[in-house]
């Protein structure tokens, strides 16, 4: 829990600086890129995590790798490096995205379904949950999960809305077991 709080502090500080300098969009994009690099380039992360390599060389790699980006993102990455939290780049990017979404009145939702949802179905789900949550909009990331049997499972933040047939059958089974006791 403590790590989550610390990661949020980095994201909040960067978000505040980005808002003050009116560069929120570009910082969000750069953090997304940094997250992709951290998740997909094992050699990059291994180099930055290697204790035998000096901090100066690691910071130089950050400078050259993200030279096209803002000084704010590069400095944040260097702060994570100094604190021994360079592996937290994806979490910082996610926390920043959550702050951005909140400021824009939007939410990110992962929708699990048996099959790929049509654009019209995604729009209906997005509108329904935007209204339910009091948001301007909800962005849908549809993931196919054939084990659900039917229905939808929607995850927004830490909340899960489960209207799948699998879940309904589990509840019926639980009720039958309780009645028979």
TrEMBL record:
The UniProt family comment states: Belongs to the ATPase delta chain family.
Query: Could you tell me where this protein is found in the cell?
Result: Cell membrane; Membrane
Q: What does this protein do?
A: This protein is part of the stalk that links CF(0) to CF(1). It either transmits conformational changes from CF(0) to CF(1) or is implicated in proton conduction. F(1)F(0) ATP synthase produces ATP from ADP in the presence of a proton or sodium gradient. F-type ATPases consist of two structural domains, F(1) containing the extramembraneous catalytic core and F(0) containing the membrane proton channel, linked together by a central stalk and a peripheral stalk. During catalysis, ATP synthesis in the catalytic domain of F(1) is coupled via a rotary mechanism of the central stalk subunits to proton translocation.
Where the protein is mainly located, per its record?
Answer: membrane
What is the protein name for this chain? ATP synthase subunit delta
The record's GO CC annotations read: plasma membrane; proton-transporting ATP synthase complex
Keyword Coiled coil belongs to the record? no
The entry's keywords? ATP synthesis, Cell membrane, CF(1), Hydrogen ion transport, Ion transport, Membrane, Transport
Species of provenance? Terribacillus aidingensis
Pfam families, A to Z: OSCP (PF00213)
Q: Which PROSITE patterns match?
A: ATPASE_DELTA
- GO MF annotations, alphabetized: proton-transporting ATP synthase activity, rotational mechanism
In its keyword annotation, does this UniProt entry include Cell wall biogenesis/degradation? no
The record's annotation in SUPFAM superfamilies points to:
N-terminal domain of the delta subunit of the F1F0-ATP synthase
InterPro entries for the chain: ATP_synth_OSCP/delta_N_sf, ATPase_OSCP/d_CS, ATPase_OSCP/dsu
């Amino acid at each position: 829990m403590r790590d989550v709080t610390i990661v949020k502090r980095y994201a909040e500080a960067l978000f505040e600086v980005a808002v003050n300098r009116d560069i929120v969009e570009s910082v969000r994009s750069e953090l997304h890129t940094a997250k992709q690099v951290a998740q997909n380039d094992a050699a990059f992360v291994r180099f930055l995590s290697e204790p035998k390599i000096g901090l100066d060389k690691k910071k130089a790699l950050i400078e050259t790798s993200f030279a096209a980006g803002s000084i704010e993102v590069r400095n944040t990455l260097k702060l994570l490096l100094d604190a021994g939290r360079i592996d937290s780049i994806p979490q910082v990017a996610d926390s920043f995205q959550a702050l951005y979404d909140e400021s824009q009145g939007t939410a990110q939702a992962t929708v699990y379904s048996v099959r790929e949802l049509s654009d019209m179905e995604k729009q209906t789900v997005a509108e329904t949950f935007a209204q339910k949550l009091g948001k301007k909009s909800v962005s849908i990331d549809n993931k196919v999960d054939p084990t659900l049997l039917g229905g939808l499972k929607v995850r927004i933040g830490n909340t899960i809305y489960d209207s799948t047939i699998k879940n309904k059958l589990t509840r019926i089974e639980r009720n039958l077991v309780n009645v028979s006791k």
